Amino acid sequence: MEKDVQLVVIHTEYIQIDQLLKLEGVIETGGQIKSLIDDKVLFLNGQLVTEKRKKCYPKDIISIDGLDVDFVITSEEE
After folding, report:
1. Is a pLDDT exceeding 60 seen at residue 78?
2. Contact status, residue 73 vs residue 10, Cβ threshold 8 Å
3. Which of 10, 12, 30, 32 could serve as 18's disulfide partner, Cβ 3.0–4.6 Å?
4. pLDDT above 90: percentage of residues in the chain
């Protein structure tokens, strides 16, 4: 099944993955990202995420197993 795509516009060079997931309402606090990392369900561009403050840049794709949407980062200039 194909996942939906949610564009996330950032106004800076990058955004930390925990901040992005809070912004999008996936987690309520930055500490909750630890569960996603421990459960090995969080991916950045197809690679398993092991850092809770991993930097994400425009054109990066964040996926979470079990969630029916992928987040694609874009800058305000695009």
Report:
1. no
2. yes
3. 30
4. 87
